[in-house]
Design brief:
Length: 319
């Protein structure tokens, strides 16, 4: 039987750190409002010459080094992003060229903040089918480019960054189970409803969100999908060592852990330092907790995404 296992992780954050107080100097907001409603203290914002593919490249180099795998061994690249460098070529193809490799399959996957979880579940199926043996899975975003910096209800929430894992074929299960869902009837509560037509951006090319509606939806589906994923592989909530939900809002993370009956000590939180980095948030949090020694070999980690579409999903991983 072929399984897939995470053998390395890496991440990258732009150098420019923007605090809540920095934002309060530019708009009508405050550190107190942002921290009390979201838990966010700061976010990283990409420099003008940084793109999703350049952030993905840095995270990928770190993931490959931690796996002890050369880029030439990678036979599948999936980049989860909603802020690609271009309409095409894909960010995955740009990343492949930056890594100095050719020939392997490479494509982008667009499921907004669920993107990394979708990409990991997809790569698991590619590997278990026997078609591929070494995948590089990346979440990379520059959401700062699609924010309306005059809309204080959204622009304070997001940040830029990238996280990556190497997923390799193994005879023992690493990925234990996954579940993916979408409901397009909720498209309107979180969207960037712009497009390119006749050489111009048309529609509204900024992120718009009904925050309270997204909040309620997220808390419900994160609980449901975690239980569904556990049931698929005969595991119980008590078997989960670490919970890494999409890092959108500390109150969503804490409510999810509470509804599941997991103690807060099992929750990995990075939203305070990174803000919401969309598809990058889960691999960033995973890499941080592996590198600081909390997540160890053998631990069971529940990764969860939820975001625009609406999309949601979970992957239970044994490290
Ligand atoms: O990746 C998935 C996407 N996003 C999420 O998961 C976000 C989910 N939603 C949330 O995190 C929360 O709903 C928010 C943090 C976005 C908003 O928190 P809330 O407690 O639901 O606040 P609200 O939208 O009901 O707004 C409350 C007040 C409003 O003022 P009034 O009308 O009550 O006078 C807003 O105008 O807060 C005001 N407000 C702000 N005040 C200071 C909104 N944004 C700000 C701001 N600074 N940045």
């Amino acid at each position: 039987m072929i399984y897939s296992r995470i053998t390395g992780s890496g991440s990258y954050l732009p150098a420019n750190v923007v605090s809540n107080d920095d934002l309060a100097k530019r708009m009508d907001t405050s550190d107190e409002w942002i921290r009390s409603r979201t838990g966010i203290r700061q976010r990283h914002i990409a420099a003008a010459d940084e793109t999703s593919s350049s952030l993905a490249f840095e995270a990928s180099k770190a993931a490959l080094a931690s796996a002890g795998v050369g880029a030439q061994n990678v036979d599948l690249i999936i980049v989860a992003t909603s802020t690609p460098d271009f309409i095409f070529p894909s960010t995955a193809c740009l990343l492949q060229a930056k890594l100095g490799i050719k020939g392997c399959a490479a494509f982008d996957l667009q499921a907004v903040c669920s993107g990394f979880v979708y990409a990991l579940a997809t790569a698991d199926l590619f590997i278990r089918s026997g078609q591929h043996r070494c995948a590089l899975i990346v979440g990379a975003e520059v959401f700062s480019r699609i924010l309306d910096w005059n809309d204080r209800g959204t622009c304070v929430l997001f940040g830029d960054g990238a996280g990556a894992v190497v997923l390799q074929a193994d005879d023992k299960p690493g990925i234990m189970a996954s579940a993916l869902h979408a409901d397009g009837s909720h498209a309107g509560i979180l969207s960037v409803a712009g497009s390119v037509c006749g050489g111009k951006a048309t529609g509204d090319p900024f992120l718009r969100m009904d925050g309270p509606a997204v909040f309620k939806f997220a808390v419900r589906v994160l609980d449901e999908v975690a239980r569904e994923t556990l049931a698929k592989c005969g595991q119980r909530v008590e078997d989960v060592d670490w919970l890494i939900p999409h890092q959108a809002n500390l109150r969503i993370l804490e409510s999810t852990a509470k509804r599941l009956g997991l103690p807060p000590e099992k929750l990995i939180v990075t939203v305070d330092r990174h803000g919401n980095t969309s598809a990058a948030s889960v691999p960033l949090a995973l890499d941080l907790a592996i590198r600081d020694g909390r997540i160890k070999s053998g631990h069971k980690v529940m990764l969860q995404g939820v975001g625009g579409g609406f999309t949601w999903g979970a992957v239970l991983v044994q490290m």
